[in-house]
Please model this.
Amino acid sequence: MPVLTHQSIQSFLDYLKYEKRYSVHTLISYQNDLLGFIDFLEIYFGGVLLPDIIHSHVRSWLARLKEKELTSKSINRKISTLKSFFKYHLRTGSIEASPMTRVISPKNSKRLPVFVKEEDTRKLVESLHSSTENWKSLNAKMLIVIFYATGMRLSELINLKEKQVDFSNSQIKVLGKGNKERIIPISEELGKSIRNYQELKKKEFEKTDDILLVTEKGKKLYPKYAYLLVRQVLSGASTLDKKSPHILRHSFATHLMNNGADLMAVKELLGHSSLASTQVYTHNSIEKLKEVYRKAHPKA
Model:
């Protein structure tokens, strides 16, 4: 009789890795969620056979997570992990029914995206262009400028290769989640900045494996390096509590919406699979319209 063990988790993770081609970051998230569930079953139920897990076991775990004040978003992610896990074992014949059919996901509280104001963003970019450049400050400038000009995710930018930049057509081909490609147009100014960076890189380093942005040692940027550089720049230019690269992605989308961009176009530029993910940015554009109305209408 199959037991919920590390082996049953590993076979599922192997499936996600080799057949679904999920990223390392996603695999780690799935693994952590499942190990947390195993630990809970061991502590509170003395371990449970895989086919004997029922909805009440899952609900008890979710209630425990709620007691620990996890957000609805985090709990829903764990529910999604369990759904995928049991669906996989249902297909392989390890179980006859999924306990997730009677588990209801809590509603996510909608948090509005935090973004940098347009005027503040303009000043920030101007200050970066005028700053004295060593390699680290040059990287800071490139990160800020590309994030804001394209709305890329952190993983997409640090993995961006030189060949993905098409200067003749002023566009960048981005490889997003699930290896889904999308095209993002770039300005002539950004294209010029990228060309200048490439020229400096050729002079500075012998070989960089076609990766666009590199560290002072000529190696591919790693997430923490990029995150800390962006955070450092935003800390000196913004009063926002959050200062991550994702704030620039939010700013990119919000500023597009505030200036009349089509919602479907913004969805494609961001690489969202669902329109619901993009619609959160319409709230900020509506708030801007309300502000304009209050200031301009005589009866407001």
Q: What stands out?
A: The mean pLDDT is 88. The first strand starts at residue 165 and ends at 166. The chain is about 60% helix and 5% strand.
